[in-house]
Write a structure and sequence with these properties.
three-stranded antiparallel β-sheet, alpha+beta
């Protein structure tokens, strides 16, 4: 697992608390800074049963994730074991040590969404020209059963080293 938005992380000695330190230069494709609270929003959103996330179970190692997703014990997304310590520090607490947790975060369920974009565009936030992302590329086209076109994200923290401008 290679660092992306997080420049580094630490794991508590009991293996249950992951603390991620976000890059000061991390930005969304619209130029907004990526904040720890964006990850909190995203993780709570994906666990919320109302979202209907097909693969939410991938992140069930997070404290209360399964209970939130399955509406057990009165748990709500606010009970999820995620918190923003400050704008650049995200803390994730697990139910139990999960040595492969970092690998789980590489699944699409661990990808953050831009809160303002989701709130403004609703279910259309994923459409080309609307989607705000934080990776090396932005979505330009998505033609079902044909192709997806991505363009280099000028706001990506390492954009100067992204060698390919357009990907199909």
């Amino acid at each position: 697992v290679a660092p992306g938005v997080a420049e580094r992380w630490t794991i508590s000695t009991d293996g249950k608390v992951y603390t991620f330190h976000l890059r000061a230069t991390a930005k969304w494709s619209n130029g907004d800074p990526v904040k720890a609270s964006d990850f909190v929003f995203s993780l709570r959103r994906i666990m919320d049963p109302a979202t209907g996330a097909k693969y939410a179970n991938v992140l069930f190692p997070i404290l209360n994730a399964e209970k939130v997703n399955k509406k057990q014990d009165g748990k709500t997304p606010a009970d999820l074991g995620v918190k923003a310590i400050d704008d650049r520090t995200l803390e994730i607490t697990l139910e139990r040590p999960t040595p492969y947790f970092l690998e789980l975060l590489t699944h699409q369920t661990g990808t953050p969404v831009h809160p303002g974009n989701v709130q403004a565009a609703g279910k259309d936030f994923i459409k080309p020209g609307t989607l705000v992302s934080n990776g090396a590329y932005v979505l330009v086209e998505n033609v079902p059963n044909s192709h997806i076109k991505l363009a280099k994200n000028p706001h990506f923290h390492d954009a100067k080293n992204v060698q390919i401008d357009t990907v199909f």
